[in-house]
Known about the structure:
Elements: E1 3-8, E2 13-19, E3 30-35, E4 38-49, E5 59-64, H1 67-93, E6 99-105, E7 111-117, H2 122-135, E8 138-143, H3 144-150, H4 180-187
Parallel strand pairs: 2-5, 7-8
Antiparallel strand pairs: 1-2, 1-4, 3-4, 3-5, 6-7
Helix pairs in contact: 1-2
Amino acid sequence: xxxxxxxxxxxxxxxxxxxxxxxxxxxxxxxxxxxxxxxxxxxxxxxxxxxxxxxxxxxxxxxxxxxxxxxxxxxxxxxxxxxxxxxxxxxxxxxxxxxxxxxxxxxxxxxxxxxxxxxxxxxxxxxxxxxxxxxxxxxxxxxxxxxxxxxxxxxxxxxxxxxxxxxxxxxxxxxxxxxxxxxxxxxx
Length: 188
């Protein structure tokens, strides 16, 4: 059985996932996956294929999204927006010079990711830790700039990724216009 390519996470990571139930999920199926970060919602961008040259999966597809999963996702999106607004307000009140780009709440509710431009100051870390207690989640910082320089997933910007959910075409990538791998290709 081959691996599915699945786009998951706020920044559109792409990884290879095996199906826990040995099912074959068609392209564009919304699925629940166990990624290296935890439970997340993903979208199949390429059906299972043995020819992708993948030897080790990035995780497992647990199931197709259900109605209950859709409701949970909607609640988590609301919490995500609340966390963003609360963090923005606290940063402003404390006069912390940090540029918050977005907040991501994992599907299992365990992880809360705050995306900042550049390195946020220590005061921003303290604020996000307090917010984590409020939302009963583990907080992690992600530098948006790292994604811009490293790309969005395996094979980002390569011929091998073309048509397989990678960013050879960059048509569906959230950061295509500023992606470092896209710029490296242009300079070649």
